Amino acid sequence: MTNYLLTGGGTAGHVNPLLTVASALLERDEASKVFVLGTSTGLESRLVPEAGLQLLLVDKLPFPRRPNLKALIFPFRFLSLVQKVKSYIRQHSIDVVVGFGGYVSAPAYLAAKQLKVPVVIHEGNALAGIANKFGNRFAAAAGKAFRSSDLANSEFVGMPIRAAITELSRAKDVPAARKFFGLKPDSTTLLVTGGSLGAKSINETIDRSRAVLAAAGIQVLHIIGGTSDLEEVSEPEYRRIRYVDRMELAIAASDFAVSRAGAATVSEFSAVGLPALYIPYAVGNGEQGFNILDVLAAGGAITITDKEFDEQYVRAFLIPVISDSKKLASMSEAAKQAGVLDGTERFVALIEEVLSRR
Question: Which ranges carry the Glycosyl transferase family 28 C-terminal domain (predicted)?
């Protein structure tokens, strides 16, 4: 029996792979216990209890970006969090801390180091985050989702992907998936998604391009996200919805995707061979642009900037690509070469290898 403390929260990019790994660990040994460290405000506050796991709470403490009062008191608050995590580790007899990055992971890494509990890190982005770079200095092992990741001394394991997605590589009922969304079973299908919050520029360009896409015989499944001003639409060749609970069906229904380049999205599309036009979100440290380097090099995707993605691009470049079945097949196979289906198993094996040294 092993007691695991998994850390990582705030966004789906941290929480979803964490939950996938937690499920795999419990499947291997039902006697083991998995605890999750997170905040009361992040996505984990809802998803972790829904998964039947115990959430151990700490305060959210972002790293200071500029010299101000918050930066001055940061060391004291950080050390307070470290002490809090140490109390959790002792209370639950934690054998290993497994971190997926994010604000909550850094104090957990230091707490584990001070108590001589091994740390195993998973870096989901090609451009490693601050917390994981910090923890990697003393981690027992580190896995990375992308071959091109800049995380030093890490092993390429791929992204832990939900079983519902990986199953698509073995069997997918395309007509049934399209029927689920009210789409035609035999038409070439374009999936458009900007992530959970949506992407205003992508949404507006696709909305203005509905007629030319339909004229080309391409039907569209358009996921607009929670903040879009657009209304949901259900037409014979155009289905616009705010959210999708079953993303595996959206992927199964589609021949091509237009998407932002979040790590999980790129990993899932690549693993099952869904070719895509990626339009990276150009803010922060530009991490989305790095997430697509592997699949671009393999030939499984294309990319442009937000400013370049307009109606003219859709008409002159996107439609010809989607309409070329040989091109799509070639890109699909190339995407699979960049992707990894067994990222969960690879990362769990890395954790077990660390535990075997104790």
Answer: 189-346
Domain, as residue range, for 7: 3-161+341-356
Q: Are residues 171 and 280 in the same domain?
A: yes
Per-residue buried b or exposed e for 68-95, using 16+ beta carbons within 10 Å of the residue's own CB: eeeeeeeeeeeeebbebbbebbeeeebb
Mean pLDDT, the chain, whole residue set:
93
Cβ atoms of 18 and 107 closer than 8 Å: no
Please report the pLDDT score of residue 196 as a whole number: 56
CA distance 314 to 296: 19
pLDDT higher than 80, residue 169: yes
User: What's the one-letter identity of residue 107?
Assistant: P
Do the Cβ atoms of 103 and 43 come closer than 8 Å?
no
What are the tens digits of pLDDT across the range 36-78? 999 998 888 899 999 999 999 998 877 777 788 777 777 788 8
One domain for residues 62 and 180: no
Q: What is the dihedral of CA 108, 110, 112, 113, to 10 degrees?
A: 160
Count how many domains the chain has: 2
| 41 and 174 assigned to the same domain | no
Structure tokens belonging to residue 100: 């997926």
CATH number at residue 144: 3.40.50.2000
Count of residues in the chain: 358
The separation between the first and the last C-alpha atoms of the chain, rounded to the nearest angstrom, is 14
- Are residue 273 and residue 186 in the same domain, yes or no? yes
Q: Are residues 189 and 321 in the same domain?
A: yes
Packed helices 12-28 and 263-272: angle between N→C axes, nearest 10 degrees: 60
- Cα(64)–Cα(328) distance, integer angstroms: 45
Domain identity same for 155 and 8? yes
**Pick from 2, 3, 5: nearest CA to 111:** 5
- The reply to whether 330 and 345 lie within a common domain is no
How far is the C-alpha of 38 from the C-alpha of 102, rounded, in Å? Answer: 10
Sheet strands side by side (includes 96-99) = 54-57, 33-38, 3-7, 96-99, 119-123, 141-144, 155-156
Residue-wise pLDDT tens digits, 297-347: 999 999 999 999 999 999 999 999 999 999 999 999 999 999 999 999 999
